[in-house]
Design a protein that fits this description.
Naphthalene 1,2-dioxygenase Alpha Subunit, Chain A, domain 1, alpha+beta, 14% helix, 2 domains, Rieske Iron-sulfur Protein, six-stranded antiparallel β-sheet
Length: 341
């Protein structure tokens, strides 16, 4: 991996550079190079012969052509990315290893593509644009063999990633936007809840909402109070654990992690990683339910103005907006710039 993103937009980026961001489903990066975008920068994703995924600047350093229009070829037993314009070939380190028009010429170390840190986790490709990435924050349940897992999305939304995270954390809209699914117009009152915040993020350890349709049963007639746990441990990622209706020690029945890729300050690509324990749902059903919920959320979030989240001024708060206020303070402490005012 080399240095951070290089462009005039660099000055507009803050601490978000050092975090890992999802940019594509791993299954969508196959044999052909694939274009992606992150924080206003165009990327190319490709796999070598060992199946390792690489993330580079999409711009060929020779004449600026789009490397995602190239192909992966074999050269001496090594998989290399070949530019579609002049055929320059780049090895996994980004170094140009051959120029077909002059095969005897040995390119210098300056003849190389710009490489970013990349890794796969939970069915997604993650990229970091900083020379010194933060520690990768994984959620341990992903390795639990008892989980049924699904990924829904991508959803391309013309708004900022922080707006989407704040909506995900908000419970007071359930009875209005998700009536009949996650909320009910006759059960909109919520009890006060605890919010824990610190340098590592924001946690709501236990809160209760009225849910008219239990995800695991699909029974709209069986409304009940359900306990949730929320956690934010990165600027644009949020997690929800559905704890059920039992004791505080009860294991989560459902886990939903919202994964936002900030394409730029006001454009976001979103996925949801979903896992269920012992529920009678196929991955397709789990993803389909999330499609329905997000289709209800998207129009109202897209209507919000400004598109970027105002951290300190311009919006009023009520007593149950404590988690939103804590999330805004967390972004301010981090020094995040993309998607906020």
């Amino acid at each position: 991996m080399e240095s951070a993103f290089h462009s005039p937009a660099q000055a507009d980026l803050g601490a978000e550079l050092s975090f890992w961001h999802p940019v594509a489903k791993a299954a969508d990066v196959a044999h052909s190079p694939r274009a992606a975008q992150l924080l206003g920068h165009d990327l190319v994703l490709w796999r070598d012969g060992a199946g390792v995924c690489h993330a580079w600047s999409k711009r060929c350093p020779h004449r600026g052509a789009d490397l995602s229009m190239g192909c992966v070829v074999q050269r001496g037993g090594e998989s290399v990315l070949q530019c579609g314009y002049h055929g320059w070939r780049f090895g996994a380190s980004g170094q140009c290893v051959q120029v077909p028009a002059q095969p005897s010429w040995q390119p210098s170390v300056q003849h190389r593509a710009h490489v970013y840190a990349a890794r796969e986790f939970a069915g997604m490709v993650w990229v970091c644009g900083a020379a010194q990435p933060t520690a990768f924050a994984a959620w341990p349940e992903v390795s639990d063999a008892g989980l049924t897992q699904a990924i829904s999305g991508p959803y391309d939304v013309p708004t900022s990633a922080p707006r989407l995270v704040e909506n995900f954390l908000d419970m007071t809209h359930f009875g209005f936007i998700h009536q009949g699914y996650l909320g009910d117009a006759e059960h909109t009152e919520l009890a006060a809840y605890e919010v824990l915040e610190g340098e590592s993020g924001v946690v709501v350890p236990d809160c209760s909402v009225w849910q008219p349709q239990a995800f695991e049963s699909g029974d709209a007639a069986r409304g009940q109070w359900v306990r949730y746990r929320y956690e934010v441990s990165a600027p644009y990622t949020a997690r929800l654990d559905k704890l059920g209706s039992g004791s505080a020690d009860e294991a989560a029945k459902l886990i939903i992690v919202m994964l936002n890729c900030p394409l730029n300050a006001e454009q976001t690509r979103t996925w949801f990683w979903i896992a269920a324990k012992g529920l009678n749902q196929t991955p397709e059903q789990m993803a389909g339910f999330q499609d329905t919920i997000f289709a209800q959320d998207a129009p109202i979030v897209m209507s919000q103005r400004p598109k970027r989240l105002p951290l300190t001024q311009g919006e009023l708060h009520g007593p149950l907006d404590r988690v939103s206020a804590a999330y805004r303070r967390y972004l301010h402490r981090l020094g995040v710039k993309t998607g906020i005012l």
